[in-house]
Amino acid sequence: DAGVIQSPRHEVTEMGQEVTLRCKPISGHDYLFWYRQTMMRGLELLIYFNNNVPIDDSGMPEDRFSAKMPNASFSTLKIQPSEPRDSAVYFCASSRIRMNTQYFGPGTRLTVL
Amino acid sequence: DQQVKQNSPSLSVQEGRISILNCDYTNSMFDYFLWYKKYPAEGPTFLISISSIKDKNEDGRFTVFLNKSAKHLSLHIVPSQPGDSAVYFCAAYSGAGSYQLTFGKGTKLSVIP
Description:
The complex is a heterodimer of chains A (113) and B (113).
Chain A: E1 5-7, E2 10-13, E3 19-24, E4 31-38, E5 42-50, E6 53-56, E7 65-71, E8 74-79, E9 88-95, E10 103-104, E11 108-112
Parallel strand pairs in A: 2-11
Antiparallel strand pairs in A: 1-3, 3-8, 4-5, 4-9, 5-6, 7-8, 9-10, 9-11
Chain B: E1 4-5, E2 10-14, E3 19-25, E4 32-38, E5 45-51, E6 56-59, E7 62-67, E8 72-77, E9 86-93, E10 102-103, E11 107-112
Parallel strand pairs in B: 2-11
Antiparallel strand pairs in B: 1-3, 3-8, 4-5, 4-9, 6-7, 7-8, 9-10, 9-11
């Protein structure tokens, strides 16, 4: 298996622009997680899905952030409009049902100027 | 309030010696603990885990110890190798229905040849 795939690996954008991060989980995994990593706060869970349904989005910082999972093999995290404080590494992870070993993608490093 | 704490941001160890990475938690509902390793520009990868019904789990050079009364766990790497140089994250979750991992901020291990 190719593992969790994220794109793009790096994104540089200007404040106010829309940013879309993409994730393809491991085939057969029923859970998908979006995390954000910053120096100050470490790894934070933003939102997670079970069978394509959002279960808990309490970690999403504000309404500028939204996530979707239209099917079992694809998810997006959108920031609109982006702000400099959104600069971070965003990770997607997936896991099988009832197993909490999460497999992480390589991350997207987002820089908002 | 940080529920999982790794109080040492960094650790340096000579090759061949033992590396001990520590983690403390405050949430008594946590009953499953994991260690992840992260290399630069990659996502975290699962290393080893332990359930609260055990006090020790071993996998090759890696051993995790859990002290429930002290709410403390540690990861021992023996012998340490230069390839072990990475950031190590401690994570925990409650098996009572939640699939949310709570991560510590990580400890950067440097193994000196």
